[in-house]
Structure formats: structure tokens, C-alpha cells
Design goal:
about 210 residues, about 15% strand, 6 strands, alpha/beta
Length: about 210
Amino acid sequence: MSPPKVLVLTGATRGLGRALVPHFLAAGHAVAGCGRSKTHIDDMTRALAGHGARSLFTAVDVTDFAAVKAWADLVIQRFGPPDLLVNNASTLGPTPLGPLADLCPADVATTLDTNATASFALTAALLPQLTAASGVVIGISSDAAVEHYPGWGAYAASKAALDHLMLTFGVENPDIACYAIDPGDMRTEMQQAAFPGEDISDRRDPTEVAPA
């Protein structure tokens, strides 16, 4: 049998991130996940207590870049070099979604920090270890990164930035593989927040997307 892999995952408590955790644990791998809500992290730790030695869930605000670096150091200390980093943490920005002209610079900056700069910070912090493990880095992106949807301007700009950051890491570091992946629309809290009051039951459940 091949040795277990080590997955590092942001946005681990909701949506696709939450669906990925049991998928990887069931495959025998170790998972280090973070989320902004301590309550959600505590709930997740209790729910997956049976995987204790192979799981580590930590409350981290990814826009606190010092905290991101400290968490990266903790993960390395606990599990060693990670094989896979999934930069999944994301925000729509202010909701309900509206025109760019209605946003203030701080709104745009926070969206960029959450969706792009945080991924840069964590990838850079783990880069030596990912390189040592010939690891893989994934940025969870969106078709909004290449399309221009009314109301989605700040989110779209942040995902375009994420794509460029992740793929440039790959070009500059040939010992790792870097991807930007659009998982498509899913039946998540974020999707519902983007379409308040609408029926989103036609979207795929994140558990259907996780295996791919």
C-alpha cells in the first residue's frame, strides 16, 4: 500500500470543503482543515473524532495572514510535508450581490484578500514542503473568473486573481503541480446567498462533486 497522503484544506466546514473532508479520510489520508467559525470547527472535530490521529481542524481567519502562517507551521509539525493543498475558502463579498459601483474599496479588498491573497499566503508558506513532497496545489475557482456577470464583479476579479496566482506558482515551481478548478454551481449556502429566495435544488450537492 502507498503511504497516506496529507491534505491541507481551507474553507473546510461548509460546501465543497466539508464534502472533501470525509472523502479523503475514508481513503485513509490525513486532513488538516481550517474554517473561520470556531463553532463549526468544534462541531466538525466532534463529528470526526474517530479519525483523531489523522485529522486536525483549526479555527483560522484566512485574511489574518500571520494566523495563516502559524497554522501552516502547526500543520507541518503535526503531519509533515503536505501532498495536496486545496485553497477553497471563499466569500461572495457583500450580499445581496449588486453593481460594482455600489461597493466601497474595502469591500473589494476584503473579497480579494479572502479569495486570492489568502491562497497566495498559504501556498507560499507551504511551498518548500509541497516541493519536497512533489505536491499538488488546487485553487477552487469559478467560471466568473473569465465571464462578466452583473453583480459578481468583486468575486470574479478575486477568482481571476486566484487563477493567475496558482498557475504562476506552477510555472515558477516545476516540482509541484498547480491547478485552478471550477467545480460548477453547487447546492451550498454561498450559492443560496447569491440567489436569495430562489430554488437552487437543481444544483449538484457538494458530495457529488467531491470525488471528482
